[in-house]
Design a protein that fits this description.
Elements (H helix, E strand, L loop, with lengths): L4 E4 L5 H12 L5 E3 L12 H6 L6 E4 L2 E3 L2 H11 L13 H31 L10 H22 L12 H4 L2 H8 L3 H8 L2 H11 L2 H12 L6
Parallel strand pairs: 1-2
Antiparallel strand pairs: 1-3, 3-4
Length: 225
């Protein structure tokens, strides 16, 4: 039984959502300390300010503090291998190597353009004095379309990115993909226009772990002004 697991942040944050999904997949008990970092007046705990000025996600396990959401997910899978979904980080060196390739591809190539689209399509329309930037939207749409084209080819052979089991490779894509798909018909078409990508997203977004995160986001949407 895991003890003393704490997550600091808002469920609405994509980084926090990634960590929460992993915790639910692993059936680990944890405490969520909501820090509304979007409000400049909010005072963050000192250990968060020292390690992560944005405060988007901070994880504590005893004396251990981690701020990168993907590193937190790796930590949870490595330190609690027998809890919950045992296949989340692979069952051997070869499986883990494949998952790592996808995690790195997501972090290095998918995250930046998808994060831009999350802001421009999902958040900007609801912010005061912010107008969505059409140039940035088109530029990042092209990048995502190229990547999803590669994904579609892979997913024509595998049920999930790293094989036939749901892993961190798929989980890591969920938060940004969710915001883009639910932002507008324009965002949705990026995923639904590709048959295998559409089927893959439907499968991963219907997992109980992600549904629990969505419920938390609706109950505590956070403040983006």
């Amino acid at each position: 039984m895991a003890a003393g697991l704490q997550v600091f942040g808002q469920p609405a944050s994509t980084d926090v959502a990634r960590v929460l999904t992993c915790l639910f997949e692993k059936n680990l008990e944890f405490e969520l300390v909501r820090t509304d970092t979007f409000k400049k007046s909010h005072k963050l705990p000192e250990f968060i300010k020292l390690r992560d000025p944005t405060g988007q996600v901070t994880f504590k396990h005893g004396d251990k503090t981690i701020v990168d959401s993907r590193a937190i997910c790796r930590y949870l899978c490595t330190n609690f291998p027998e809890d919950g979904n045992r296949k989340l980080y692979g069952m051997g060196a070869l499986e883990r190597a494949s998952i790592e390739q996808w995690l790195q591809a997501e972090a290095q190539s998918f995250d930046a353009p998808s994060s831009q689209l999350v802001f421009q399509l999902a958040f900007a329309p609801h912010l005061k004095d912010v107008i969505p930037d059409e140039r940035k939207i088109e530029e990042n749409e092209k990048k995502i379309q190229t990547m999803l084209g590669v994904y579609d080819e892979i997913l024509s052979k595998n049920k999930f990115l790293a094989g036939d089991e749901f892993t961190l490779a798929d989980l890591s894509h969920l938060p940004n993909s969710h915001y883009i798909i639910n932002s507008s018909e324009r965002g949705r078409k990026l995923f639904t226009s590709k048959k295998h990508v559409a089927k893959w997203y439907e499968a991963i977004s219907n997992r109980d772990s992600w549904k629990q995160v969505i419920k938390m986001q609706r109950e505590h949407p956070g403040t983006f002004e």
